[in-house]
Write a structure and sequence with these properties.
- By secondary structure, the chain is mainly beta.
- The chain folds into two domains: 2-45 and 105-444, TonB-dependent receptor, beta-barrel domain (Maltoporin, Chain A, Beta Barrel); 49-94, no CATH class.
- It contains four helices and 27 strands.
- The protein has a 19-stranded mixed beta sheet that branches. Strands 21-22-25-26 form a four-stranded antiparallel beta sheet, with no helix packed on it.
- A hairpin with a 5-residue loop joins strand 25 (418-422) and strand 26.
- The longest helix has 11 residues, at 78-88.
- The chain is globular and about 80 Å long.
- It starts with a strand and ends with a strand.
Length: 447
């Protein structure tokens, strides 16, 4: 399968600023407007072939993949399979209908136009600096995708390609205030803001697949579709922080933050939350509908600590960590849980040495357990969690001359696997080992 993706964005901005001098107080006031027109299209090129020779995957068997939990079984030699396909392409049976259907289901066209206006002002006096204002955004969105519908209940069961157009619009007021106070070697910061994050186009695509059939006198619906009706994620944010510059190449910082979030996006089986009859035109006895939807609301409180220190002999140390306590509510659930994709603990640390010729850095990153998604919104036992993960990386750069540089990286030195599970670590959902990755490169700058 190949695809041609195009993403065009046209932007126009206009801004006016007037300086203000009121005795010991300096500042300015600005206003402006902007317009952004974004268009994204995707056209898939899918080829589905049959092999009249009746080849089996066992013809391309390779040694078993490495798997820590036991013997996985034979693997597939992808290079041999690809070479066989290229050698015999002309003798294979091209399935034009299935190829066309698969390509059309993947295709989409989306347009997102954002018109914005803002008013802001800056105030400065002594060690104080305040920036405050408000921004208004009006968003118009339209999308066109294709759904593959297989209806064996009210139809004849043949695959049908059904256009799926959609239009939506919404607007947002986004006030903000940022305060900075500097005294001696200390800098204090505070902010209160309202922000939005629009869903990505992959989640908004109205296309997908719907299969509706009858089994034993009951109607069964199976679907995997996008959701162009997603609302943007809205967040009200409060931040407080302090930075200490003790002198030299060193800085220590600490901060606390609070966020009140609405409409965060999760992917789940939403059969109990949507109008199934509106989807297929008649009552449904049993259904599974995988779709991104907006969650209800979430709150999180966090603490951040960071430190960086470089010594005169070239040694440097850095570390930062974040603790987040989150609580979110979800459609169709009474109990609350952690906000998806928000681990409780994250920390990074690095130690290294450098001079004008050589730089060496050893870094480690830790991410705590995090909720990734839902198989069934009404059953927490099927919630998918990503296990804690620690990765250690090494990087080095050698400036051979002013124009020539040699670079080396070694990632995942401890061969840390990726592990996800359902509800409890005993129930494996996904396990992947990537091994270590090494790269050696050379960079030449003639000027």
């Amino acid at each position: 399968m190949d695809g041609d993706a195009e993403d065009e964005s046209h932007n126009v901005k206009f801004k006016m600023t007037r300086d203000l001098f009121l005795g010991p107080y300096n500042g300015d006031v600005s206003l402006g407007v902007s317009y952004r027109a974004r268009e994204k299209t995707y056209e898939a090129d899918v080829g589905i072939y049959g092999d009249p020779a009746g080849s089996l995957l066992t013809d391309f068997e390779s040694r078993p993949p490495r798997y820590s939990f036991g013997r996985f079984g034979p693997g597939i030699d992808a290079d041999s399979l690809r070479a066989y396909f290229e050698r015999n392409r002309d003798s294979l049976d091209f399935d034009e209908e299935d190829s066309l259907i698969a390509a059309n289901v993947a295709n989409y066209e989306m347009n997102e136009d954002v018109t914005a206006a803002f008013l802001m002002s800056t105030f400065e006096s002594g060690g104080w600096r305040v920036v405050y204002g408000v921004r208004y955004e009006d968003t118009d969105f339209d999308a066109l995708g294709t759904r593959l519908v297989v209806d064996d209940v009210t139809g004849n069961g043949d695959p049908m390609l059904v256009p799926a157009p959609f239009e939506n619009s919404y607007d947002n007021w986004l006030p903000s205030v940022n305060v900075r106070w500097e005294t001696g070697n200390l800098v204090f910061r505070g902010a209160a803001t309202m922000t939005i994050a629009r869903p990505n186009f992959a989640e908004l695509s109205p296309g997908g697949e719907i299969e509706f059939e009858e089994d034993g006198g009951e109607t069964e619906l199976s679907a995997e579709i996008g959701n162009p009706e997603l609302d943007p994620v809205e967040s009200t944010n409060l931040d407080l922080g302090v930075e200490w510059y003790p002198g030299g190449l060193a800085v220590f910082s600490a901060g606390i933050f609070y966020k009140d979030i609405d409409n965060f996006v999760v992917i789940a089986d939403v059969a109990e939350q949507i109008d199934l009859e509106g989807l297929v035109g008649q009552p449904v006895d049993d259904a599974e509908v995988i779709q991104p939807i907006n969650g209800d609301s979430a709150e999180l409180f966090g603490i951040e600590l960071a430190a960086v220190k470089q010594f005169e002999n070239g040694l440097f140390l850095s570390a930062n960590g974040t603790y987040v306590d989150s609580e979110a509510s979800f459609p169709g659930r009474d109990d609350k849980g952690m906000l998806p994709r928000t681990p409780e603990w994250v920390w990074n640390g690095a130690i290294g040495w450098e001079n004008r010729f050589l730089s060496v850095r050893l870094a480690a990153t830790y991410r705590d357990i995090s909720l990734q998604g839902f198989e069934e919104l009404d059953d927490p036992a099927f919630d998918v969690y990503q296990d804690e993960h620690t990765q250690v990386d090494l990087s080095a750069k050698w400036n051979i001359t002013d124009q020539l540089q040699l670079a080396f990286t070694a990632n995942n030195l401890t061969d840390e696997p990726f592990y996800a599970y359902f509800g409890s670590r005993s129930y494996n959902a996904q396990y992947e080992e990537y091994g270590r990755t090494y790269a050696l490169g050379i960079k030449y700058t003639p000027f």
